[in-house]
User: Fold Glutamate--cysteine ligase from Penicillium salamii.
Amino acid sequence: MGLLALGTALEWPDAKQKAGQVREWGIEQLLANWRKARGKERDALLWGDEVEYLVVALDDAAKKSRLSLAQAEILKSLAREEALWKSGSGDNKKHSDHDGEEPPHFHPEFGRFMLEATPGQPWGIGFKDLLKVESNMKWRREVAKAHMAPNEVPITLTTFPRLGTKDDYIQPYYPPSGPALRSQFVPDEIANPHIRFPTLAANIRSRRGRKVELNVPVFHDTNTPRPFKDPTVNYDLHNWPEDDDVRNGAAKDDHVYMDAMAFGMGSCCLQITFQAKNMTEGRRLYDQLSPLGPILLALTAATPIYKGFLVDTDVRWNQIGNAVDDRTREELGEAVSTCESRFSDSRTNISQPLKNDRWRIPKSRYASNSTYISQDPRLRKEYFDPDLVVDESIKKRLMDGGMDDLLATHFAHLFIRDPLVIFSEDLEELDLNKSDHFENLQSTNWQHMRFKPPPPDKDDIGWRVEFRSMEIQITDFENAAFSIFIVLITRAILSFDLNFYIPIQRTTENMETAHARDAVNDRRFWFRKDPFASIVPRSAQQSTNGSTLSSGTSSAVNTPPPSPPLGPVETEFDLMTIDDIVNGCADGSFPGLIPLVESYLNSVNVDVETRCFLASYLDLIRKRANGTLWTGARWMREFVAKHPSYKQDSVVSEEITYDLVKAVEEMTIKEGKNGSVGWELLRGRK
Ligand code: ADP
Ligand code: MG
Ligand code: MG
Ligand code: MG
Ligand code: MG
Ligand code: MG
Assistant:
């Protein structure tokens, strides 16, 4: 969430004036911090997950479910309890199942109907910690619930199916629209009222020159009109200049149209942060996990409904990208000056010099990442995007300051953006022992991987890498399974020195592919065939004991053949199904992520009990990849399709939504009661 300092937030025209200064100071802070932290060694293997919830209020009498805007009250109540815990006077009895675990942390999020929860302290290197994750997640849910009104529940759907409809879907009710979002569908009160959030939304809109625009293709069922014209769009509003957007064609036929940051940033996700032992290892993990982003997005797909309609996509990612897309028409490569040129071939504009902006920018600031950063001899120049946009003067400053080309390029790419929320108080004096200006840009570059430098004021935190693409899952069994899977993959990557490099544009393409309905079963993704390909002899590996997730020996995996000379890059990767990628190709061309993880587990001799425990999580991933088990998206589609009141017209009514939320709540209650849910619940989805 970045920093939440209080102060006077600048409106866009003023913020724009100060953007250069913030970038410059941010880069000086980065350089100072990088010089101090680049030699940090032997930081512990720590990791942590972030789970996000929707707070839903259930009205069983009226069979209605609504988003509850109670975030502030719930967090206040949670903070009181945390203070009691800390002072030692809290009621710890109910936490006897969580001996030695710190009480969970709760954080605000963009939506005033959202909560984020993290473990009380990061998880460590021991395998035993993996066994605590699921129960800790369930504990977090219980603690959150205990601070809600009796009819409120924390649920882990990515989006609320009827957000932005004409119902009274929020509690308390506020009608649209307000000065910050200027949405015709949602009120400003939907967002966290902290000045940072309305300013962020308003400045994105102002910078862009119109409202954000989300058009999600509708799912055409047998009774869905063709063309489908979003019946919830009002073309006759005249409250704000932005109300013209829809008259200027913002809402597309056959799409569900949305117009505010809340439709994207109001989505819940599952993020995992790893601490590396040093910067070099962090850079390696960043690169190697990057190609997995779209694969895990498709595997965790859980977003088939927007604004009361079934849509033809299964994941949230691009909708968040669109919800915070602050690019101007010029940066987007659209014509700006005349009316006709709006409809002319955009390619003719690409070559024209820009009048107001510095670059054409191909991606939203929320998008898949666009470059690699590891000083790895296997990183071929062909894997880079030759058209990557970087701020050359910033890159030069970083390199003059001693940073290497790759890392300087990464940050000079992030810093092509403007800072969006600037507090005038922070511009008085540059403090090189802080990272506020750096974080201003870093934390509003929402890429699917994030490289997190150590905070300058905390010696005990090292270089970290965050994996950000996954969708939140309905049950904590699933959330734990995906968290643990990613942890084990990182261990396999480090242990076997795995090579997942593909040209970065293929990952961008994969990210699009992951959006398709049932991509997990029906689509193919670019993936590297030989994960052992190396052009340098791998260093001798030390042996390990079986109690930690160390990056130990690689002896359990076939010794790689001597490296062949480098062939054309195109022969290194292929289109594969998710089943191929996760479970291995039948023809042996790719071994599969699960078999790689199993080899890693064999190599570290984990005890039988732990191995059995982990097996149920790996089974979920395996079976989701091969189509035996459904994604959350598929389960929701089936739920809607089978609902007695569904009319095959793509409409997900209030009644269906209430029943869906109830079914989700029941699933999590059952899961909480039964301990580890195992297969029963998930089989029920077939
Ligand atoms: P952000 O919201 O900026 O991504 P959070 O502060 O919410 O970051 O924390 C992300 C996760 O990182 C949490 O699960 C937390 O437990 C974990 N974490 C905290 N410190 C470390 C660390 N030193 N190494 C690895 N993970 C950490
Ligand atoms: Mg967080
Ligand atoms: Mg965050
Ligand atoms: Mg969050
Ligand atoms: Mg995070
Ligand atoms: Mg298959």
